[in-house]
Write a structure and sequence with these properties.
- Strands 1-2 form a two-stranded antiparallel ribbon.
- The chain is built from eight helices and two strands.
- Helices cover 60% and strands 4% of the residues.
- Residues 204-208 have low confidence and may be disordered.
Length: 215
């Protein structure tokens, strides 16, 4: 394999690894969603979640479920931080998935490949200006690899949150192996329970308004 082919392979491999890492984020979002709706082992609920194709909508429905179930408190505050991270990482992942590869022959060999917004998309001119080599955002290989690492870190943090949320709501049993991976704040939150702080497991007991049938 020539040096040029090696650079090409590393760049496209970085893109593929970053894009596919997002699937693990969605898996952990699903776990949080199931805990939030009180159905951690519901096959229909899992199927419904994965029927949603949009990553943005998956984040949104998870956020709505957690916010409605918890209403307030430190466990909800921790989720909001994760929600903001997931929203930001989704935008980065989408950019990497939809930008096009540009080659800058004047750059060093290991920096010639870049991802930039589509140059024929005239909407980008209004955003970034007429020169795609100056005003447009860019992702180098190192930036793409960093984005992949951030997605793996996010998926791990979401997994730990799903575990703590299940404990908090009285829906999961403790797992020593997972306890050892909790940071101090999550470990503190895992010792709380919804009933102890006055939040019943079935909270909120709200009925959905029904429309009267009219002829």
């Amino acid at each position: 394999m020539s040096p040029e082919e090696e650079v090409d392979l590393r760049f496209y491999t970085a893109i593929g690894r970053c894009i596919t890492a997002w699937a693990h984020v969605e898996d952990e979002l699903a776990a949080i969603y199931m805990e939030a709706i009180g159905a951690p082992n519901s096959a229909p609920a899992f199927a419904s979640f994965y029927a949603v194709q949009s990553p943005e909508v998956k984040i949104s429905i998870t956020h709505s479920a957690v916010s409605m179930r918890l209403a307030s408190g430190d466990v909800l505050s921790r989720w909001k931080s994760l929600y903001n991270r997931a929203t930001k990482r989704r935008k980065t992942r989408n950019a990497i998935a939809h930008y096009q590869v540009m080659i800058n022959p004047q750059a060093k060999r290991d920096k010639q490949y870049e991802l930039r917004p589509m140059i024929r998309d005239l909407n980008n001119i209004a955003k970034y200006g007429p020169d795609p080599l100056r005003g447009y955002p860019v992702f180098t290989q190192h930036m793409i690899e960093a984005a992949e690492r951030s997605l793996w870190a996010l998926s791990r943090d979401l997994k730990m949150y799903a575990y703590v949320l299940g404990l908090f709501l009285g829906q999961r049993a403790r797992e020593p192996a997972l306890d050892q991976r909790l940071d101090p704040e999550l470990l503190r939150l895992s010792a709380l329970s919804a009933t102890e702080i006055g939040l019943p497991p079935e909270w909120p007991r709200r009925s959905v308004p029904r429309l009267n049938d009219q002829a």
